[in-house]
Amino acid sequence: MPLGDVLAHLVAWLIAPLVAVSRPGEKMFVLYVAGSAVVALVTLRRAGHPAPFRELFARRVWNHPSARVDVRFYLVNGILAAAVFVPLFALQHSVMNAVAHRLSTLVGARESSDPGVFVLAAIAVAAALANDFAIYLPHWLQHRVALLWQFHKVHHSAEVLTPLTVFRFHPVDDALNVASIVGIVGAFDGVLLGLFPTAVVHQTLFGVNAVLFVFYVGGVHLRHSHVWLAYPRTVSQVLISPAMHQVHHSVDPGHHGKNLGLIFSVWDRVFGTLFIPTSRLELRYGLGDGEETEFSSVRRLYWLPFVKAARLFRSRA
Q: What residue ranges do the domains of the chain occupy?
């Protein structure tokens, strides 16, 4: 590879965490942040808070040591993700083509067709459900398999929740998540390509699945925040509210391993991990028993899970 290309890739990796605000495919896209801020301010005002804006940027949250680690980890791990994990999503295209080819071999080649509006809407929802399952499955494993839990502790070691906590994942976690998305979403797209041979048909906004885009703009960052937003119970039977994900981070043993999905609560309901709070809860975040204080720096977020995994392996051996 020419030196110029190497330098271009290096610069792209280094600035990836900073330019995410301009990319609709990134969670920190400016519209998602702005939409979450608006929803948060409205929620705080409706709750009767006297100073919603000041509460949104409360020092007790944003100046907490855990929040400062979130910022540093986002900048460092964002470079690693851009260099290592983002290129792996190219494999999703290979999975899609392999599944589409296999489907055409089994049922025969189909002629091109133009799906109607209702079919497009159904595809958008089905694609969001497939994406949700691709996130739910590794998340379920991370909470059930003791070895994987040692690495997932990085995410749950946050003592306060900020929008950057969503990026607080160990690379081992990231690798498992990427593998699941590449396999499951790639296979889903392959089925679509088999049914509609001209292209993978998705309803998109700014190049993002329409359902996912609306979910992101409608307050995705409140999931990792101190703003309590619960949906009516009937809605929570379908969608996971920010409050339900905050419960997921609670140290209360009754909340462990609950609400593992992203948008829809259907997979949690199917697999028995759904927890819908009936009223506002006072939650404490972390790992419990003070273990979260061990994850006090970016360096420790990286190497401490390996230490804990080795201890677990030796104790069982």
A: 3-316
